[in-house]
Predict the structure.
Amino acid sequence: MPALPTECRPSSHRLAPSFLRCYPDPKEAGFTLHLPSALALSAFAIFSTSCAEETVAGHAATPRRVLASESGLASFYCTRLHGEETASGEILDRRELVAAHPTFPFDTVVRVTNLENGRSVEVRIIDRGPARAPRADGVVIDLSTGAAKKLGFLRDGRVKVRLEVLRWGPKE
């Protein structure tokens, strides 16, 4: 294919957007740009990405029925645990959307909804917890700080939540 020319010639179409008014000679470039085709292709690209599958911590999470639910309090990991190995063997990255639960299998995907502001986030279970201590009374899940930030409770430390299992992880 020949190299694109360095000079542009103006478009004869007065309604063409400014970025389409200057284009290489199609005969020299080996292609032609048709405005309707370009607009149709752009619309398809925008529409198809809006229908794309959502991912959670690198795993596909599609809307599906709730397999189990639980309510209680959520807390989040202290920052000093960032970079430490979790019970599943994964290294905790506080920015990822991950969590600890006492019984759910590792790799289970859970939707966590903050009952005070309605925000939701999907997390993947990679650890066991929360730790049993007086401060953990009623806490059903420990979240990464990334997940807590999305739920909007970093300042509060704990918040009332609803857990909905969307996909079970493999049995351990």
User: Anything to note?
Assistant: The longest helix spans residues 35-50. The longest strand covers residues 68-76.
